[in-house]
What does this fold into?
Amino acid sequence: MRFEPIFELAEWLSVSLEYPKDTVEFALKLAKKCQLKTVLDPSPLIDLPEKDLWPMVDYALPNQKELKILTGEDEMLQGANVLKDWGAGEIIVKQGAGGSSFLHQDNLINVSAFPTKSVVDSTGAGDLFNAAFIYGMIQSNSIARSVQIANLVASYAVQKRGTCESFPDRREIDWGQLDKRKNDLLF
It folds into this structure.
């Protein structure tokens, strides 16, 4: 298989539904074969993924609207539990200005957003959240800490127009804000 050598060099696969479903499924299967950790952002929800896709997903990162459409559940906790029942590993729900939440021992733990001067454009903030979440997992191996990191980094993206051009350089981020919240999550 021509892609296998690339996957064997990696540790993580992050994929969204911007690609055809069969491509996403192929990538997830190959990632699992090569023992990669997998992240799925179910966006955009044009065609709903099959339920048999979820056991290949270590971290599902839907936003609130996507979670509701995927599962048919109005409440985030019930929606997160549905994805878990379908076989997804960890569930992290992006909520924009509301921060984000993750499922922990049958509870949905909310992690507050970081304040911003203004919200100019939220385009691309979800993608940056995903990348920052993975960065956090590589650095700390803690979902709680990774969600805090992702919230912080995404808060920078919404303050500028555009997608990639709104993404901050690592040196632009006030990482000290994380230290101020280190006691917010005690696990």
The radius of gyration is 16 Å. The chain has two domains: 1-94, 113-187. Residues 176 and 182 are 10 Å apart (CA to CA). Residues 125-140 form the longest helix (16 residues).
